[in-house]
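User: Fold this, then the next.

Assistant: Folding the first:
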Amino acid sequence: MLENYVVSALLASTIAASAPDGVPAASSVTVTGCDQYTTIFPPMDRGPSAQVRYKILEISFVNRSPITARHVRFAVGADAQIVDAFGRFSTGIPIIRDFEPTNDDNVSGPGNCAIKLVEFSDGSSWRVP
């Protein structure tokens, strides 16, 4: 009888963690950092008043799936700028990617980069339910 209860509890927790169409509600890729930096370069031939500003969006993430990910799509900031990372993202390896942001959001913290899509090397994918 205890076995039936355990199986039922496991089944219920699996269903609760999935969207209605059977897709897991949470991505197996986790954002660990999302920060925007501004770097200022003083051009050598223009004098001290001229400056070039360059913004960098740095996203850190980890693939927790046993399958290598090859494409991760993020929505960044309040206006949900779409940023795509392509590569071979193996299980458990911390990844840091830099992007050029197209918005002026002051992004700081992993909560500002939401994962929208993950495509895996075996052809499977996960997208926000």
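Now the next one, as you asked:
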Amino acid sequence: MLEERFRLLEEKVTSLLGELKRLRKENKAQSGEISSLREEADEAEKLRAEKDNLTGRVQELENDVASGEAKEEEMRERLRSIIEKIDALESIPEAD
């Protein structure tokens, strides 16, 4: 009877040790996966920050282009005005 109890206890201990070993292995695998996911999250955060930075820079460049276009249009208008004045001067008959 006592022998049977020891044998059952030994089987339970062996079973529990096997389960403990399996759980430790699973825990180690999950720890590796967590580490990998943290690295990916860090990389994603860096990319997000870079994207935000580049988006801001694109906006600045778009504003610069729009400003340049406005200045270009202003220069065209001024040149047109100057040319019109020159044409007007040329069309005035000379006094002899």
